[in-house]
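Structure (tokenized):
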């Protein structure tokens, strides 16, 4: 727990900065529910899986390889089905969709948690900048591929970040999706996280008239493996000040677990949450035209990378 956990007040939901995933699910039985969590082997994904399973949910935990997912699953109590899903590899995502679709149970929630941050140099996958491809395109393929396995009141939770506010001025640089016309580590991470918010909001619009919901969350700032590409000085400083100012992993997993499971949010869709309360995203993350354009471009990319397999 950081100092901020004691100082910052709780929000209207009754939860706040210092709430943990266990606290936001206290007294809640998730028996009979199935939740898919990507990136289950590390940081927030692992804690999310652990707490959901603790509350009785069946968790489909994905990691880059089945071995990684299985190793993580073996560390938690409850029912976890480990599945491989390497988000930068469309064939792996398609295999994950196939495996999950073949299971007899439907999904009550999908938590698109996995991500990479601030790669020092521009790397690409299938011709697209790697953070955009992993964080957005991989999840676009996964979530849209699993929509017919989502229950009628199923929830999609996209892990974004306050970092989406560092996205380029255009929100998404559609003419620079390979990063060749200019690369900035934070800018491109921001773009991928902006894509996560836009995707959640567009999905919410597509869910209108149904009981399904889609939301995006900022988990807080937490010391996890996500910082592996940060400059070593920044890493050391964040490791030192982290315990004072940053959220713990238990606190960091709270918002996604809350949004995926809290009964009070059954009708809440198209929102951006931070510290378990509705928060303000960058103004253009609310632009429906930008979100629709991203959806259409993502569909084209999905068709292109699927045809190339
Ligand atoms: N930590 C923060 O301060 C913070 C702040 C804002 C937003 N977030 C968001 O929270 C989410 C979880 O981050 P975290 O802090 O828990 O980081 P983490 O500990 O590094 O976990 C990230 C997870 O994503 C997986 N992953 C990375 N690339 C992948 C790929 N190509 N295919 C499949 N899985 C992949 C990682 O697998 P490997 O272990 O195999 O690499 C790991 O399981 C991310 O979306 C991040 O953007 C975090």
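Design, position by position:
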């Amino acid at each position: 727990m950081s100092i901020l956990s004691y100082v910052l007040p709780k929000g209207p939901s009754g939860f706040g900065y210092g709430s943990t995933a266990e606290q936001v699910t206290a007294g809640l039985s998730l028996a009979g529910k199935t939740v898919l969590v990507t990136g289950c082997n590390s940081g927030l994904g692992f804690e999310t899986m652990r707490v959901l399973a603790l509350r009785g949910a069946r968790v489909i935990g994905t990691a880059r390889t089945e071995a990684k997912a299985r190793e993580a699953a073996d560390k938690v109590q409850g029912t976890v089905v480990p599945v491989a899903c390497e988000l930068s590899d469309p064939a792996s995502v398609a295999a994950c969709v196939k495996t999950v679709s073949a299971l007899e149970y439907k999904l009550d929630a999908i938590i698109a948690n996995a991500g990479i941050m601030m790669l020092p140099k521009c790397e690409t996958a299938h011709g697209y900048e790697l953070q955009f491809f992993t964080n957005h395109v991989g999840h676009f393929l996964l979530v849209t591929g699993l929509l017919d396995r989502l229950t009628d009141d199923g929830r999609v939770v996209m892990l974004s970040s306050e970092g989406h506010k560092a996205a380029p001025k255009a929100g998404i640089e559609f003419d620079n999706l390979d990063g060749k016309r200019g690369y900035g580590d934070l800018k491109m991470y921001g773009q991928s996280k902006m894509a996560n918010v836009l995707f959640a909001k567009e999905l919410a619009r597509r869910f209108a008239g149904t009981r399904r919901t889609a939301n995006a969350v900022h988990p807080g700032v937490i010391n996890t493996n996500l910082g592996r590409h940060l400059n070593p000085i920044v890493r050391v400083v964040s490791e030192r000040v982290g315990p004072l100012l940053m959220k713990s992993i238990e606190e960091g997993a709270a918002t996604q677990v809350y949004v995926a499971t809290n009964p009070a949010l059954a009708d809440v869709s198209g929102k951006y949450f931070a510290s378990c309360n509705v928060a303000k995203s960058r103004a253009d993350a609310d632009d429906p035209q930008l979100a629709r354009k991203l959806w259409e471009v993502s569909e084209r990319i999905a068709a292109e990378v699927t045809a190339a397999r």
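Reviewer-requested clarification: Residues 213 and 269 are 5 Å apart (CA to CA). The beta strands are 34-38, 58-63, 79-84, 107-112, 124-125, 128-129, 150-159, 213-218, 272-274, 277-279.
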